[in-house]
Amino acid sequence: MKLPVISLDNKKVGDIDLDDAVFGMPSRPDLLARAVNWQLAKRRSGNHKTKGRSEVSGSTAKPFNQKGTGRARQGDRKAPQMRGGGVAFGPVVRDHNLSLPKKVRRLALRSALSAKQADGKLIVLDTVSIKSAKTSDLAKLITKLGWKSALVIDGAAVDANFSRAASNIMGLDVLPQVGANVYDIIRRDTLVLTKDAVEQLQERLK
């Protein structure tokens, strides 16, 4: 399939052929859900921890007699129901990572790219190189293009001026091609790829 290539000035500068194997897949919401869950799980540190009754500092002696006090019977002061006691079934340090095969991850990324193309929300730019690193200058270009929520993916490295100017624009994310991922693609309304990004993604995913 062919898609027009535009410049940052919103002028058509040519066309590009997209590989159907990468940008023409049928929709697979199940794969997208698995990939997003896998990505978000990897972000979790899993270092939450509370002390159980075996870890709380204190005596194991019975606090008072079993009978005759009029109070409920107690075994020791480290029990969960006692003030200063351990926490019952509290969180412990754990690994939240899920297992997702590499083939499934690649298939999910292709599905995300194809979904954006099918929805008409895939834009191909000639280049994102700009002379000025001023946020105000880039913001004017973005307003003319009508991007309110967009992810821009460049080639091997993002232009330094563009990355710096985009860092203060709300709703605009910038990534190199190697950082392309399902979660960032679907969380933004518009996906913007440079010609270099398209070529490298097709080489990487086909």
List the keywords.
alpha/beta; six-stranded mixed beta sheet; 206 residues
Structure description:
There is one protein chain. The protein has helices at 20-23, 29-43, 102-118, 135-145, 160-166, 182-187, 195-205, and strands at residues 2-6, 12-17, 122-125, 150-153, 172-175, 190-194. The chain is an alpha/beta fold and 206 residues long. The chain has 2 domains: 2-43 and 97-205, Ribosomal protein L4/L1 (Ribosomal Protein L4, Chain: A), CATH 3.40.1370; 45-95, no CATH class. A 6-stranded mixed beta sheet has the order 2-1-3-6-4-5. The longest helix is centred in the middle third of the chain and has 17 residues, at 102-118. The model has no long low-confidence stretch (mean pLDDT 93).
